[in-house]
Design brief:
Blueprint (H helix, E strand, L loop, with lengths): L17 H6 L1 H4 L32 E8 L2 E8 L4 E7 L6 E7 L12 E5 L7 E2 L3 E2 L10 E7 L7 E2 L12 H10 L12 H18 L6 H10 L12 H18 L2 H15 L21 H15 L7 H16 L25 H18 L2 H16 L28 H14 L6 H14 L20 H15 L2
Antiparallel strand pairs: 1-2, 2-3, 3-6, 3-7, 4-5, 4-8, 8-9
Helix pairs in contact: 3-4, 3-14, 4-6, 4-14, 6-7, 6-8, 7-8, 8-9, 8-10, 10-11, 10-12, 12-14, 13-14
Length: about 500
């Protein structure tokens, strides 16, 4: 018996309450075998099996077109069947048409498969292939299709852009989440690198929470089970900021699933960070177990993680005290400059080192202060957070032309450098603060950023690149989860 397909769109069957969704996660999530999804040219059966006649399609819309030697190629999609087919028109008998299917966002496909390859018959000027599934639910293969074809008497081949149905992609944020999951490695259970996989998983979990779409909840447990024993165990390692990112991911996992094992792991991560709170520069957590450098991101993560744990552990006093100690030290550390933006860290004299005001340093602190405010009710925490948020959202250095831009924003990295992941935590932190403030003062900023991103920096598969103001250049995990963080935050405004 095939597993029930993932969730689709917000119609009458949409799960509107996450509490209801959590009861159905096992039912809705696709099966995940120990091996990767099968090749894109292997037969797939979901609602229907591959090679279904298009006359039985529940619906039909032309998703993309291309042309070759006056022929028109079209990719047709049936959203309710989650299938597609190819057509060729304005041609001659012998013209060829077929589909390509990819399970990694169009990076690779079985180019020799030519799914449904067929030729225009005698007496006709057009033809179409059979229908093929977009996704492979049995193997957690999140797919895309394109139509390709050629004139019968010419060698040139043309293909449409890659597209997919609106299954698990009914909104900007769910479409971005689905595109993110195209890059989830089913063998390693990572999105890319170590800490960047943690923050990508957090982005995905946030989308499950804010959109009510539980289809990719399986990534939480599969990532946890696969990676828990790596590095120093329990997602700890020598870099304390990496440990903090994973700890926050497991807090988010606990919020969605209610599984205590995730909260226990987050506590182990926070305790590991606490073991490296030192007296150098008067306090604070050092960057790594063997690096005494006191930097902003490690301590901001420590603040956010400890405050989050306190708010989820009955009767806690330990994590609250650690969070309060962190904020007290951070305020007096000097890492915040005169313009109310935060530099990278402290020099050997325990002074602000003047290094880059990375976007994530401006955002994680906002989430930490919002969480600490929930714990204490101290209004001064929100005052401090607003001062910092006003500075970063109005900074022309960070927002040239009005759109958020990472200092030294990289290009040509394939969206796999650390910096490609920085803008996401900024948007996430600003969104958390915005929800905590009764007047939601940053809604317009978040909405404007999201509109620019969606208009100027997106592929037909809702993949996003490094430059939110455009143009689109490339995509990958860091850019994609950062875009998802922004779209999640904007959808809550």
């Amino acid at each position: 018996m095939r597993p029930t397909p993932p969730h689709r769109h917000p119609g009458s069957t949409r799960l509107r309450r996450l509490a209801t969704a959590s009861c159905l996660l096992a039912f809705l999530a696709p099966a995940l075998p120990s091996t990767a999804a099968q090749a894109a040219d292997q037969p797939v059966c979901n609602k229907h099996c591959d090679a279904r006649d298009p006359r039985y399609a529940a619906d039909d819309h032309t998703a993309a077109t291309a042309s070759v030697h006056a022929r028109t190629l079209a990719l047709h999609l049936s959203d309710n069947d989650v299938m597609g087919w190819a057509s060729i028109d304005n041609g001659n008998p012998g013209d060829e048409i077929w589909l390509d299917r990819s399970f990694d966002g169009g990076q690779t496909w079985s180019s020799g498969s030519r799914l449904g390859a067929t030729k225009t018959p005698e007496g006709s000027r057009g033809w179409r292939s059979q229908m093929y599934n977009v996704d492979d639910w049995n193997h957690a293969g999140i797919g895309a299709l394109r139509a390709c074809g050629k004139a019968g008497d010419r060698p040139e081949i043309a293909c449409t852009p890659w597209k997919r149905t609106n299954w698990n992609a009914w909104s900007r944020s769910t479409a971005a989440a689905t595109a993110l999951m195209m890059g989830y490695h089913r063998d390693t259970r990572k999105f890319a690198g170590w800490w960047t996989s943690a923050t990508a998983l957090t982005s995905l979990i946030d989308n499950i929470r804010v959109s009510g779409m539980p289809s990719y909840t399986y990534a939480i447990s599969t990532t946890y089970d696969k990676l828990r024993g790596e590095q120093d165990g329990d997602f700890k390692n020598s870099y304390l900021d990496d440990t903090g990112w994973w700890g926050l991911a497991w807090v988010a996992a606990y919020d969605v699933t209610g599984e205590k094992r995730y909260l226990d792991t987050a506590r182990a991560d926070a305790d590991h960070m606490h073991d490296h709170w030192t007296a150098t520069c008067g306090g604070g957590v050092q960057w790594a177990t063997d690096k005494p450098y006191k930097n902003a991101i490690t301590n901001e993560l420590y603040l956010h993680l400890n405050a989050s744990l306190h708010n989820r552990i009955d009767g806690d006093g330990t994590y609250l005290q650690r969070a309060e100690d962190e904020w007290s030290w951070f305020q007096g550390s000097g890492m915040t400059n005169s313009g109310h933006t935060i530099n990278d860290g402290l020099d050997n004299s325990c002074k602000n080192n003047g290094q880059s005001t990375w976007t994530y340093n401006q955002g994680v602190i906002l989430a930490g202060l919002a969480e600490l405010h929930r714990a204490t009710g101290d209004a001064s925490l929100l005052d401090s957070a607003r001062t910092l948020a006003d500075a970063s959202t109005s900074s022309s250095y960070l927002n040239p032309g009005g759109t958020l831009h990472e200092p030294y924003e990289p290009d040509g990295t394939g969206c796999t450098s650390d910096g490609d992941s920085f803008k996401g935590p900024y948007a996430r932190g600003l969104g958390i603060l915005n929800k905590e403030l009764p007047d939601h003062p940053y809604t317009t900023y978040l909405n404007n950023q999201a509109a620019t991103l969606h208009t100027k920096n997106r592929t037909p598969l809702d993949q996003y690149g490094p430059h939110w103001a455009g143009p689109f250049t490339t995509t990958g995990n860091g850019c994609q989860h950062s875009a998802l963080d922004l779209l999640n935050a904007a959808s809550q405004g």
